[in-house]
Structures are given as C-alpha cells and as structure tokens.
Amino acid sequence: MPEPMTQSGPQPAVSIVVPVRNEAENVAPLIAEIAAALDGRWAYEIVYVDDGSTDATPQRLAALRAERPNLRQIRHRSSCGQSAAVRTGVRAARGAIVATLDGDGQNNPAFIPDLIFALEQGGARVGLAAGQRVGRKDTGFKRLQSRVANKVRNGILRDGTRDSGCGLKAFRREVFLSLPYFDGLHRFLPALVRREGFDIVYVDVADRPRLSGRSNYGFFDRLWVGLMDLAGVWWLIRRKKATPVATEVN
Ligand SMILES: Nc1nc2c(ncn2[C@@H]2O[C@H](COP(=O)(O)OP(=O)(O)O)[C@@H](O)[C@H]2O)c(=O)[nH]1
Ligand SMILES: [Mg+2]
Questions:
Q1: CA of residue 205 to ligand 2 center, whole Å
Q2: Contacts of 242-245 spanning 24+ positions with Cβ under 8 A
Q3: Which of 2, 19, 107, 119 has the lowest CB atom count within 10 Å?
Q4: Three-class SS state of 6
Q5: Given the CA of residue 84, which atom of ligand 1 is nearest to it?
Q6: Can you give the CATH number for the domain in which 143 is found?
Q7: Torsion-angle region of residue 123: left (phi > 0), alpha (psi -120 to 50) or beta?
Q8: Which of 30, 46, 55, 104 maximizes ligand 1 atoms within 8 Å of its Cβ, making it the mutation to test the pocket?
Q9: pLDDT tens digits for range 122-171
Q10: Number of domains in the chain
C-alpha cells in the first residue's frame, strides 16, 4: 500500500505536476520559470515526482524546498515510468486543476496560464486542455517518428489531435483519476478523456530544446510500446458504451 501523503497549509487552486528522472541540472531553472509564470495569478503548488533518479535530482529539489514553501517532492523508491510518476503527482495534488509539463525544459511554463484559462473558459464539458507543439526542437529522426506516430494514432483512434505526446497539459484532477491506468497513458490523454465524454481544447505551444541531460526514451521503446498501447486504447474505446448520466432518486 502506498503511504498516505498529507500536506498542511492553504489549499491551492492549481497543482503543477512535473515527472522527472535524472534531470538535476534542469530542476532549478524550470522551477524559476514556473514561478515566474504563475506567481500572483493562482494559489498554486509545484509537485515534482522524482521517479527513482540516480543523479542529484532529489538533493536539488530538497535544497529548493527550503526557499519555496509551495514546492513538494514525492519520490518513487525505484523507477516506475513517466505515466506512473504523473499519476502519483496527480493523486498527491491538492488543486482541483492540474497542469503537467516535462522536467527537461522542452516545455515552456509560460504556456501554463493559457492552458488553465482554456480549461476554465471551456466550462464543465471540457476535461483537458492539450498543448500542441509548434516548431519542434527535437532531432529530424525523432520529429519523423513523432509525425508518423501521431498520424497512425489519429487515423485509428480519430481523437482529432495533432500532437498527443506534448507534456504541457491542464485537466481536472478528478477526470484524470477516472481514466483507466496503464504505463504509457500520458501519451493518450485526448482519446481517453474523450472516452469519458469530455471535450478537449487545444493550445499551440512553442517547443524548446532540452536544457541539459538526455532523453529517457529510444526508438524501439517508443515503437513497440507505442503499438501495444495503441491497440489497448483502441480496444478501450471499442468497449465503451454510453457514458451514464446518473441521478439519485429521493
Ligand atoms: N518519472 C519519470 N519521468 C520520466 C521517465 N522518463 C522520462 N521522464 C520525464 O518525462 C519527461 C520527458 O522525457 P524525455 O526523456 O525528455 O522524453 P522525450 O522528450 O520524449 O525525449 C522528462 O521530464 C523526463 O524527466 C521515467 O521513467 N520516469
Ligand atoms: Mg524531452
């Protein structure tokens, strides 16, 4: 059983969840950018989920916590993957709205307010505001992989999404936690959120190169698990009936 996570202090409206594995050099600059984007706008907390890093990521986070009371660090004892880290962060989040972003600096926190506004303006029907990268800063080969993967996914799932792998997203905590969980889930949020009967709104976000360190994924990781996950999500959608509208009769 996971230990219960408790936190005192006023409840924030928004939680920023950042999954990281071995991102020591990227922690401080990204947190400064998150604070610059959100300070004075919402009561918020930053929840870093360190997924069993073997570098100085936990120490850097611990040092920053001394000066930032709204920064939390949650640590997996051993690495369980990015989806698991996002889920741990969302479960621990105290805000009703959660925004996620990658911890390597590729996602610019300056877009978080746009995502939150888009979600809020959409009202209760909208379950997810998804970032769509423009001007990708990855290598040509990775851009090609991503383009093919997005075409195949959209062709099969028809989730109307150009780019579902962007780490910048905002959603209602409750909606995310109602989704079926699997490793790889974070790449299929638009299709899974639509499956629950919610709409998606999109926000264009400028992509950046990784600040420092290296990618955690290789070509074969993405190809093999990507195909398996696609088959799984296709099945989940096929096996969905109408979303129940339930009312208690008194
Ligand atoms: N918690 C956790 N985070 C991960 C893992 N792999 C990648 N990440 C984080 O997820 C984000 C995106 O990963 P990255 O390696 O940059 O993937 P890429 O941008 O697709 O090449 C970064 O913040 C990583 O630190 C993992 O196994 N566990
Ligand atoms: Mg990256």
A1: 14
A2: 243/196, 243/197
A3: 2
A4: coil
A5: 1
A6: 3.90.550.10
A7: left
A8: 104
A9: 999 999 999 999 988 888 898 999 899 999 999 999 999 999 999 999 99
A10: 1
Provide the residue type at 136 as one letter: R
Q: Which residues pair with 201 in a beta bridge?
A: 129
The letter for the amino acid at 237 is: I
Residue 184: domain span: 14-238
Contacts of 83 (CB under 8 A, 6+ apart): 181, 182, 183, 184, 185, 186
- Residue owning tokens 């926190």: 109
Pocket flag, ligand 1, residue 224 (CB < 6 Å): no
The Cα–Cα gap between 141 and 9 comes to 46
| Number of residues that this document lists for the chain | 250
Three-state DSSP string of 124-165: HHEEEEEEEEECCCCCHHHHHHHHHHHHHHHHHHCCCCCCCC
Is residue 224 a part of any domain in this protein? yes
Q: What is the DSSP letter of 4?
A: P
Mutate to test the pocket of ligand 1, among 16, 17, 18, 21 (most ligand atoms within 8 A of CB): 21
In angstroms, the CA 199 to CA 125 distance is 6
Question: At 14, is the secondary structure helix, strand, or coil?
Answer: strand
Residue 18 included in any domain: yes
What is the tens place of the pLDDT at every residue in 45-79?
Answer: 999 999 999 999 999 999 999 999 999 999 999 99
The answer to the question of residue 248 being in a domain is no
